[in-house]
Every structure is written in C-alpha cells, then in structure tokens.
Write a structure and sequence with these properties.
Structural class: alpha/beta
Distance between the termini: 38 Å
Oligomer: single chain
Length: 596
C-alpha cells in the first residue's frame, strides 16, 4: 500500500470519527504538497466543510491534531494553509517504501494485463523520398507512446501504412526512366531511399522548367501547370500502374525495394520497430470496395460526373469525395480500407491510435465520421494523436522535400553523433574504452539528445529543434539525464556488497526524503502519460528526478559518512534513482551509458 493510500485511509477514518458521519471516497482529496509549502502530502479540506460545519482553518486543525495524536500515526507533523492540510510523513515510512521499491522488478510499471489491445500507427512514409526531421518526431512519439502503453499493462501492436502508390511515386519512377541511366544504389553508392528522393527532386526541377517555358510562350500559369509534358507522362504512368501494366509494375517493385532497404537502415538507427506493415497498394482496393458497398446501401451518393461522396452535413462538415468520376481513389478511400483491414486482422482491438501531424486534424475527423456512418462502432475508439510541426531556428534551412532542401533524418542523426563525439572527447577521459565502445557511447549520447529534445515538448505543441542545444550537458537535455545516470553507476562501482535493504529508522535529511518522494511518483507518472499519450510527462519527470538527485549528491556526502546505515541509505537512493532513470529513458526509446 502506497503512502498516499495510507494517508487517504487515515484521513477518511479520522474525518468519520470526528464528525460522526460516513463519507464517500470522492470527498477525500489527497495531493502532493506544493513545493513552496512544508509537507509531503496535502488533504484538501474544502469538500469537508459541510460535514464539519466549521471554517477551513479550524476544520484542518482538528483533523491534523487528531491524525498526529492517533496511535502509531505515520504523520510526524502538520501545518495548515487556508483550506489545505499539509502532512509531513515520518522518515521511517518513506524508508519502508524505499525497501519495497529496491526489490521490485520493473518498478513503477503495471504488472497485470489490462486485457486491452491497442494498435499504434506511426511513421507511414511515402516511398518517393527519405525520412526527414518531421518523421523523427513522429517515429519517436509513436514508439514511445507504444512503450508507455505497454508499461500500463496493455498489449500493443506497432504498425505503419506505407504510402507506396500514387502520382508522387510515379514522378520518381518517370524521372529515373528519363535520366537515371540504370543507376542503382549499388552502382551509385547512394542509399536506396536517398537515390529515389534524388529523382523526385529531379522531376520537380524539370516540371518547373517546363512550366516556366510554357508561361514564357504566352500560356497562363494555371493552364501551364496542368499541361507540361512530364506531368502528363507521370499521369499516364499512374493509369498504367492502376491497370496492372507489367512493365510499370516491375519498375515500381524494383524502385520501392530500394527504398525499403534504405528505410530499414534508418529505422535501425532510430531505434524503432514495427509489429505489422500495411501498404496503400493493398488497402486502397479494399477502400474502393467498401465505398461501392456504402453507395449501394445509401450511405453515400453519386454526382452526375460519376464521383462518389459522403454527406457530412449532419456532422457540420463539408461533403467528402471518396471516388473520383473516373473511379480512381483518394487518400480517404485508402484510409477507410486500411482501418477495416486492421480490425479484420485484429478483432480484439480496443483502440487504434494514429500518430500524424496536426495538419491532418480535419482529415481524421472526417475519417472517423465516415466509419461511424458505415456502422463500424469501433471507430469511436479511434484516436488521432495529433502533434505540432518541428521547425529549425531561423537561418538553418527549410523543410521542402520537393526542392531538395529537406532536413534529412539520416544526416541529422549522423551529425548529432559527430557533435556528441567532439563534446565527449573534450570533457571526458575515455581512452580506456575500445574504439567500438567509444563509437557506441557517442551514438548513445547523440541519439539520446535528439530523442529527448523532440519528446520533452507536449506533443500538441509546435516546436523549434535546436541541434546544438539538444546535446548540451546542462539544462533540460538528454545528455544531462544520461550523465546523472552515469554518476549513479560510478557510485555503485565503488561499493562492495551493496544490499537492497536499508535501516528504516535512519533519520533523513529533507533532500533525501524529497528524493524518495520523487522516486515514488514514477508509477503515477507512467499512468498519467499513458492516459494522455504524452511521453513529455515521462521526459520532464525524469529530468526533475535527475535535478533532485544532483542536489542531493552535491549537498550530502556519501562515502565520507561515518554512520554505515546512513551511507547505505544514500547508496540505495543512488541505485534506485539510476533504475528509475534507466526505465524512464527506455520508455522514451533512449539508452543510458554507464559512464560518460
């Protein structure tokens, strides 16, 4: 039983005894005491005033006196601030809690299954270009949310939809056909997804040159943009693809294969993975079948040009196009098919979470509304995990992949690893590590800085990513937390015969008790992060814990302490803080090094 539950039960029984009434659990509100007040836990007295028929201060004083003077009270002292009764819990109680935590596997995480299966979609790239900075936030967010949900006892399926068809894919294919000269990843030494991205950029360049020439010849801009030879060729290629043309399909498979090999390398470097994959080239066909079926049942309507639409006026949204007049599908068609296939493959799904940027907020409102209109009740459990876009500080480039100025994910990860290498070599003595161990350390620090920086911000907020700031050793950064973990491990390496048990009668300094309380908040933080799909809650919790530990480390001696029991408490605190940091960072997909 947690200390908070002990205080809750004690407060409830004392209130009932004092005022002679039975009260509901909801009337007892226990919170953490605010940092600017003395105390560990706080009873909010205001909901009890109708029962006490007295003012808030007098009610709080009565309850506090009764609790402190009760037999075997766990409360050492109390103070009253208006309608808030602040309790200071005895050191022995906190140390007994620490003893429990020291021997608890996967401390803070739910040990029993919730019985729920949750699918989390993230990444979902197009196969015409490499992954970029925005994909990094997407992947790290989706992966971390998956790990946090697992820590809350849910069965999680990590998935993605690969957007492997459409006009954008044909643009890369056509540009390669026209100017590629049979270039391959092997012949060029260029990673597959980067090679295809190169031809996507080449198409855009040729297209713009043609548009400019047509405008120069006297054509208006709108007509010119639709009339370029290269765009018409790309559209013809798409029609051939949809018709199953063998030559076009063979080229499509070959070039997509290059991209998948490139993506696999990027995902490995990111440290993310997937349990299942879906392809738009499969799911759009299912979507078309569902739309046709919905049309026959009256869920949709057809316009004179043959296009199929969904009436969303009752949902106060504009009608949505589902099939064009020529029978070709749109993105919504594919997403309908993907959702149905996922629930068919996993009938026990409790929820489906889409990790997609906030520019698609309306798209998902429409998708869920259409699925509900089709009679799929499970659509009410679909959730769009919307996140803000990532921008760079002014002067550091823009993110326009068609123009070839994208902030490439591979380049960014490599750059940060190199920056971490330079910074580490300047401040650390690591000559005794092998070259392989050093390289792994640099990568751990660089990727830790990158992931932490992108995850510490609330997902809903737009953010500015500063590469240099992300690997700084001070402040709210991944390397600061990693360094704190390394510090705990350094202490443990200096200990012989550390036992995971301490004397509960040791008198604690305030900073030691504050550290124990902070450790105890880990479980509630995991729960809250799971409920809100927010890795930022974990990230900032671990940062605050690391800050508290460093204050403890700097203000209280460990190995110079003559009292062996006090020394063991401080070593145990170092051990448990290290375990929580490691576990918390793992939920963010971040590794922590034993030394830095």
């Amino acid at each position: 039983m947690s200390v908070e539950k002990l205080i809750f039960d004690l407060s409830k029984s004392v209130v009932e005894e004092l005022y002679g009434v039975d009260i509901a659990d909801g009337q007892i509100q226990i919170n953490k005491t605010r940092k600017d007040f003395d105390g560990d836990l706080t009873l909010v007295v205001f909901p009890l005033l109708k029962i006490s028929k007295k003012g808030p201060e007098q009610t709080a004083e009565e309850i506090g006196e009764k609790i402190v003077n009760s037999n075997d009270s766990i409360v050492e002292r109390f103070n009253v601030v208006k309608g808030f009764l602040n309790f200071s819990v005895k050191s022995s109680i906190w140390l007994k809690e620490l003893n429990k935590w020291l021997n608890e596997e996967e401390f803070g995480q739910t040990k029993t299954s919730s019985g729920k299966t949750i699918m989390v979609e993230y990444s979902s790239p197009n196969t015409n270009k490499p992954l970029h900075l925005g994909h990094l936030r997407n992947n790290f967010l989706g992966y971390s949310v998956s790990e946090i949900l697992k820590a809350n006892g849910h069965h999680v399926i990590k998935t993605q939809i690969i957007n492997d068809r459409g006009i954008h894919i044909c643009k890369s294919m056509l540009a390669w056909q026209l100017s590629g000269k049979e270039e391959t990843p092997e012949s060029s030494g260029i990673k597959g997804d980067h090679l295809i991205g190169k031809y996507y950029v080449a198409f855009d360049k040729s297209y713009k040159e043609e548009v400019a020439a047509l405008i120069e010849s006297g054509m208006d801009k709108e007509t010119a943009e639709k009339s370029t030879k290269i765009l018409v060729q790309a559209q013809e290629m798409l029609q051939k693809w949809e018709a199953g043309d063998e030559e076009v399909r063979a080229l499509w498979k070959k070039m997509n294969g290059w991209v998948y090999e490139g993506f696999a390398v990027t995902y490995k470097n990111m440290g993310v993975d997937f349990d299942s994959l879906y392809y738009e080239s499969d799911t759009y066909l299912i979507g078309k079948e569902v739309v046709e079926e919905g049309l026959s049942k009256g869920a949709f309507y057809k316009k004179e040009d043959g296009s199929v639409w969904c009436d969303l006026s009752s949902e106060k949204m504009d009608d949505k196009l589902l099939l064009r007049g020529d029978g070709t599908s749109v993105y919504m068609t594919q997403d309908i098919g993907t959702a149905l296939l996922r629930y068919k493959d996993n009938p026990s799904l409790s929820a489906l979470i889409y990790t997609v940027g906030n520019e698609q907020n309306h798209h998902f409102k429409v998708l869920f509304a259409i699925l509900i209109k089709l009679g799929y009740e499970w659509a009410k459990e679909c959730y769009h995990l919307s996140y803000g876009m990532v921008e760079l500080p002014k002067g550091m480039g823009r993110m326009k992949s068609r123009e070839g100025t994208v902030v490439d994910a591979d380049d960014l990860m490599s750059s940060l690893t190199n920056d971490a290498k330079e910074a580490t070599l300047e401040r650390s003595q690591i000559e005794d590590l092998s070259t392989e161990e050093q390289n792994e350390l640099f990568r751990t620090i660089g990727m830790g800085g990158l992931k932490y920086f992108l995850l510490k911000v609330d997902p809903k907020k737009k953010m500015i990513f500063n590469p240099a700031e992300s690997i700084e050793l001070n402040g709210n950064t991944g390397p600061f937390i990693q360094y704190t973990f390394a510090r705990t491990q350094s202490i443990l390496r200096s200990v012989k015969g550390f036992k995971k048990e301490v004397d509960s009668e040791v008198e604690l300094f305030p900073i030691e008790q504050e550290l124990i309380i902070a450790i105890g908040d880990f479980s509630a933080t995991i729960k809250e992060a799971g409920e809100n799909y927010s890795p930022a809650l974990i990230a900032n919790y671990v940062y605050e814990l690391a800050k508290t530990y460093n204050s403890f480390y700097q203000s209280i001696s460990i190995f110079k302490e003559e009292d062996e029991n006090k020394k063991q408490v401080r070593i145990a605190l170092s051990y448990q803080v290290g375990e929580v940091i490691k576990s918390g960072m793992k939920l963010l997909g971040i590794n922590v090094p034993d030394r830095m």
